[in-house]
Amino acid sequence: MEPSDSLLASLIHEPHAPLSRAAVLAQTLVGIGVLLTGLALAYGAISISSEAGYGGVGPNFLPWLVSIVLTLCGAWIIWEARTGGFRQLDAPDEGAEPAYWPGFIWVSAGLLLNAALITTLGFILSCTLSYVLAVQGLRRANGQSAANAPRVWLIDLVTGLLISAPVYWAFTKFLAINLPGLTGTGWI
Fold first, then answer.
1. What are the φ and ψ backbone dihedral angles of 52, each rounded to 5 degrees?
2. How far apart are CA 106 and CA 116, in angstroms?
């Protein structure tokens, strides 16, 4: 048997301990969530113009591609869960640290505030805010005791500006793609 054959066989027919009903249900729910996300993206892609742009690819190409891949992955995850559970899944490590939920909340707040405020604050300021909150969450999850220091907040703020401003200018000035700005000048 070739090494690649044994790998394929282990992926398809790897014997493992039977999973509890709760584990199978949880895995099935993950698959359903991914499948529904793919279908929701497909529904949203319907409203995007299919008029071909540069190179014959229209603006709806990427949303359709992502929705198709997510839908297929969701169906595959459901199939995996319903036919014996996720294959090659490592057993939970008893000594593993639990998830750090406050860090997750910081990062999620940054992403959600960016989405909520981008048309009000403009791209640069909303992305800077998102960066600052996400980095603070990651710093805290990493156990950095200096995360609350004003100097660290200032460094994160300046770094967020130094990242988001050139991205904004590249898109608006060089690629002529409209992003929401704070002023009508196109520079902020």
1. -65, 135
2. 15
- The structure tokens 């907040």 sit at 153
Burial class from Cβ neighbours inside 10 Å (0-12, 13-18, 19+) for residue 92 reads exposed
Angle at 105 between CA 99 and CA 111, to 5 degrees: 125
**Predicted local confidence at residue 52, as pLDDT:** 65
pLDDT digit string (tens) for 7-29?
445 545 455 566 778 888 989 99
> E strand or H helix at 67, and its extent?
helix 61-82
pLDDT of 59 reads: 77
pLDDT for 134 equals 95
pTM score, two decimals?
Answer: 0.59
Phi, psi of 144, deg, nearest 5: -75, 115
E-only strand ranges, 45-128? none
Count of alpha carbons within 13 Å of 131, Cβ hemisphere only?
A: 20
- Nearest CA to 127 out of 183, 50, 182, 76 is that of 182
CA distance linking residue 105 with residue 56, whole number of Å: 41
pLDDT at 77 over 80: yes
Nearest Cα to 137, choosing from 159, 106, 101, 114?
Answer: 106
* Other beta carbons less than 10 A from residue 174's beta carbon: 8
Instruction: Report yes or no: 180 and 119 within 8 Å, Cβ to Cβ.
Output: yes
